Amino acid sequence: QVQLAESGGGSVQAGGSLRLSCAASGYSYSGYCMGWFRQAPGKEREGVATLGSDGSTSYADSVKGRFTISKDNAENTLYLQMNSLKPEDTAVYYCAADLAAGTGAYCYSRGDRGMDYWGKGTLVTISS
Q: 74, exposed or middle or buried, with CB in 10 Å at 0-12, 13-18, 19+?
């Protein structure tokens, strides 16, 4: 069975940083699309960042320059480093993965419907 487990969420003040982690079991991140999505209260789930099978990345315009997606193949863990956090970043963050292969931009374009495996989410709250 494929299981994804997010961790690292919490509450911080605007301008602070958080690092989210997603540990996978029964699945290997190597060579496939993987990414982070988020859903704010009253809004639809949106893509935040994706990492392609070629190592390239893609980010939502709202987080470019502030967030960084990366992975540790040995530990089979996906990360999202979040810096310069803003109140509008408040949301439940989900890690996701599928078996598609392609660039980060391609993986991002597939959206949440392109992801087959999901974690339960971790809440990030940013206060002003």
A: exposed
* Region of residue 84 (phi > 0: left; psi between -120 and 50: alpha; otherwise: beta): left
Give strand pairing partners of 11.
125
pLDDT digits (tens, 9 = 90+) for 92-102: 999 999 878 88
Summarize pLDDT for 43-62 with one digit per residue, the tens.
999 999 999 988 999 999 99
Number of H helices and number of E strands within the chain? 1, 11
Residue in 99, 113, 109, 121 with CA at minimum distance from that of residue 34 = 99
Residue with tokens 């487990």: 5
